[in-house]
Amino acid sequence: MPNNSEEKKTQFEETREYRNLRRRRNGLKLELNAHLKFIQAYTEQPKSYQLINIRLEQVNEIINEFHRIQCQLEEMDTRDIDFHTSERIEFNEAACEVKALLMSVAECDARHSLEHSQSNTTNMSESMRLPAVPAPTFDGDLQNWSSFRDSFDAMFHDNKTLANVQKLHYLKSCLIGSAREVIKNITTTGDNYQRAYEALIARYENKSLTIQSHIRSLLDTPRVKVASTVELRNLHHHVISHIKALEALNQPIGEWDAWLVTLVCSRMDNVTAGEWQLRQQTRELPKFTDLETFLANRVSAYEVGDFERPMDGPTVTPKYVNHAPRQFAGRQNQYKSNSHDAKAFFTKNSGSRSMKCVLCAEPHGIYACDQFLRMPVPERKVIVNKFKLCFNCLNYGHQVASCNFSGCPRCGKRHNSKLHVDVSSDDSNCTSKQNETQSTSEQNTVLHARGSTVQTSTMSPIILATALIYVDDAYGKSHCCRAVLDSGSQLNFISSSCAQRLQLSKTNVSVSISGVGSMSSSTVRLLPCTISALCNDYQLKVEFYSLPIITEKLPSQVFDISQLNIPFNVKSELADPQFHIPAPVDILLGAELFYDIFLGERLQLSKYICLHRTKLGWILTGKGFESPLDQSKMTMLSTTTFNNSALSLFTSTVNIKLTNEEIRAEEHFNTNVKRIENGRFQVRLPLCADTKLLEGSQQMAKRRFFNLERRLSKDSALSQQYKSFMEEYLELDHMETVETSTSKPSYYLPHHPVFKAGSSTTKVRVVFDGSAVAPSGHSLNDILLKGPKVQPDISRILWRFRIHQVAITADIAKMYRQVVIASEDRDLQRIFYRSSPDELLKEYRLKTVTYGTKSASFLSTRCLVQIAKECSDMSIKRMTLQDFYVDDLISGGSTEDQCFTFYDKLQALLDSAGHRCLMILVNLKPLLQVIFLLEGIQCCHRNQICRLFL
Questions:
Q1: For bias kind Polar residues, which ranges apply (predicted)?
Q2: Of the candidates 242, 276, 306, which is a domain's last residue?
Q3: CB 879 within 8 A of CB 791
């Protein structure tokens, strides 16, 4: 019984489903019938064409749905096949009829719409009276033949309404000079037109001669005698017009950089050629496109200067004044300054007006402007920046790099003497006295440092407590600064120059301070920042107040420390190893920190000199050894009162910050960086332009690869090393085969070998050329952001390296290739490669950060910084941030145990991101042996790579 009930239930469910399908099929028949009735009663109306297309789509959907349901019904009911077959045939016939009717109506509507549109266009063109197009002319110059023939064909030769005799008449009227002689003797009849036309083609349709003609014109390019707008524009136009013509004739212009650059440079005037050469930063041959851009920019610069040039009347040579008028003994006539020297940029002869001052609109240069000269130096710099003037000569049209005038006569640097800042001179004091007369209801006081000289017979230098500390800037990067410890100060101070270097933000809190002799001043509080010690893990967040200068260099003179018996273990932990050498002071740490950092341990070196142990390291204070001096520089503070507007000049100094491009690269990295399953970093290429600019690079990359292949075939050893490198690249899954084509924009990287003779691992490295230019004139590197420098200068790393008692160096293996590129960007890193010419040429896609691309260094080092930021151990974090130069670790510690701990923790940190330190070298053999044992390095290999830093 249970089995029978289950069978009935199943049969009932199938029957209900069957009926539902039949009901749906009947509904589809009714929908199709409705479309048939619509088309039978169809009359044209607005938007009818769109309605027909919509109904066609609906009919297609009905047909597809019907066949789906019909198949299900036939599978469920196999007893009545004939009935289902007739249903299918009947529906198909009806559907075909409806679809055919709809398509025919749609065709008629489309044709009618097109005719209507053409009619409107014809009526519009008939109603417009266009100007007559002049007939083209041809004088026999091969370079003009192509354009003449195209124009003549369009106007006369292909005009079906003209008789041949008319065409011949027009042809003769269009020819002048030597071209007319070719058909001069041909009689003007209809039968002779084709003969005359073909005679011209036979004479001038010669691609080889046309190419030679353009090249001869390039070789005969006239030389620019004196740089001017007209001369340089003519040179630029002459060269580019022939280059474009040769490109149109399918000549490989992209491979002609060598002789094109040489030719154009030989035709430039001496000044322009010299400026072009100064712009070359490498010894590689520059590209012609770079030279073309340089010429175009020079023309634009001269055009800006010509904007104020008078249209009539003679001109005199432009005169520039960099510094105050001077006369040199014995050569007064040659160097004598006069009133004309004060003109700005372009000047006219007597009776003409000169260019107006950008500040006061008076007829003089800005360097002669009273309003400009009354400003403090910081505000002058703001004005020069605002109007894009040269910092060296205060004129238009160029920048410091291309300025021909000498530097500042006071310091020798490349700036105008009116922009010179001398902190220790009395200039600032004089300026402040001028501003004192502008009294306001509310005033602030600012400290000024002044120098004076005291005559002495002997002087014993006083040693103040100084320390080197790390201070984090606004971006978390640490900088080494010199601090003096002062228990008599209630606040912590930082010099304005150091605050600018660290890019520390100011608050709107202003504080009045008073010093010795009741001198008062005011200062601005900065946002808190972190300081830390060089030799240990101590760190603290500190609020600083900004002052123009803390003090003069400390100590006041160099003194001999050979008489000081400083213990060896203390010497390696000195807070300031160069305490005896005068150096600038960036920071003053006051009483808030003074007693907190002292640990109480004291070591007396002599009667007057003592060492104190602090959290920053050992510091030395006391009275130095006497030494004879003729003069000793003493420092004192004076106060000058400014009104609020004058004080703002000191607080609104422009900070040196990241460029917009570097900020964009940093933001792009932070937005797109992530860790993948194996812990490695995945990043995206920081693009700054559309990738469509890179289309068509396949042929260029293929050509470069075939050249490489020919080179490798001549050197079997190099070929084997190259093959091994690429096979390793593939085995490590750093590249993948491109199996199918994609519609995504792609770029193909050429590659070539680079030799590393000093390498103990890889003698040959394959480097990819991200600067290879695609047909559009752009390369991958052109559309990539370079990114900021995120690691300290090598000089700072080496300076810290020298103070370590135990030295350790290492190298991160294949650091660039440990960072994965997101799949969305990998098609921009395609290459061609095969291990043998007998194999098929394959396409590969590089999956990691690639040598030779513009952003590679930033992406890899920025990931290393990111590893450090995620580290909780401050000592390892600091080592990673401050002791790596690209992929090289240059560090150390005080003891063998400390170094081993550093190594162990650092290796674990790097392992978490797929990085691995190799080539570990230390200057202690026992420690080296332990590390080799842990790393599994064999003894024989150990002797080969062991280096001791003595």
A1: 426-445
A2: 306
A3: no
